[in-house]
Design goal:
By secondary structure, the protein is α+β, with helices and mostly antiparallel strands. It has two domains: 86 residues, no CATH class; 89 residues, Aminopeptidase, CATH 3.40.630. The chain is built from five helices and eleven strands. A five-stranded antiparallel β-sheet has the order 1-2-3-6-7. 36% of the residues are buried. This is Glycine N-acyltransferase-like protein. It comes from Callaeas wilsoni. GO terms for molecular function: glycine N-acyltransferase activity.
């Protein structure tokens, strides 16, 4: 496969994939991030250019193999996807390599399916929109179904420092609910602390995340 490095080619690829939404979601989010600074140092490969039939997004220099990134720990738990591939024009429009780690129901694969985000929201008394900091990585690792080990902690620290996230905080500034996005523009970790559930906090966090994604040119789907 051919690695695309020319900015003009990558911009053209973004335009082509946008016309293929939502089927192209897994790779499209990665291409958007690559064309906006490439914070995760990803690369895009095509089987041929410009009349390509398959597109692959992966960490730069990675060689595809049977190992799709398993976390260590007590059991073999699959980490979020390290690469994504779509085949354009086939009956099955895309398959993904590795799990995206979507552990919440409102967001779907790819850039996410925010439900009713245009309807607005109302925060519970004493709750405000804030942001997570590097000091919160252990909290994220402990509350993530795919977490609990050193590799997942490194992964969460990377996306926390490189990609958009939304955090709702209580009056003392402590996180009570949050939404993280990953290298593919997808939701990778969303959580509300148990004692703060059933107050609409996740709907509010997802709404803010969707609004911010739209402002950055990332499409959302309801």
């Amino acid at each position: 496969m051919q690695i695309l490095t020319c900015p003009a080619q990558l911009q053209r690829l973004e335009e082509i994939l946008r016309k293929c939404l939502p089927f192209a979601l897994p790779v499209y989010g990665a291409v958007l991030n690559i064309n906006r600074g490439n914070p995760s140092q990803f690369e895009v490969l095509v089987d041929k250019w410009p009349e390509f039939g398959a597109v692959l997004a992966r960490p730069s220099g990675e060689v595809a193999s049977g190992d799709m990134g398993y976390c260590g720990g007590g059991g073999a738990t699959r980490c979020p996807g390290t690469c994504q591939v779509i085949a354009v024009g086939f009956v099955r429009p895309w398959v993904h390599w590795g799990a995206l780690g979507l552990d919440f129901g409102v967001l779907g694969a790819g850039l996410g399916y925010w439900a009713h985000w245009k309807q607005g929201f109302r925060l519970a008394p004493g709750v405000r929109v804030g942001s997570l900091s590097p000091s919160h990585v252990d909290l994220l690792n402990d509350t993530w179904p795919y977490g609990g080990n050193a590799r997942s902690r490194r992964y969460l620290a990377e996306i926390l420092g490189s990609f958009p996230q939304v955090c709702l905080q209580d009056g003392s500034g402590q996180p009570v609910a949050w939404v993280l996005t990953d290298r593919f523009g997808a939701g990778t970790h969303s959580y509300t602390l148990p004692e703060h559930r059933r107050h609409g906090l996740m709907q509010a966090a997802l709404t803010v995340a969707a609004q911010r994604a739209q402002a950055r040119g990332f499409p959302t789907f309801g």
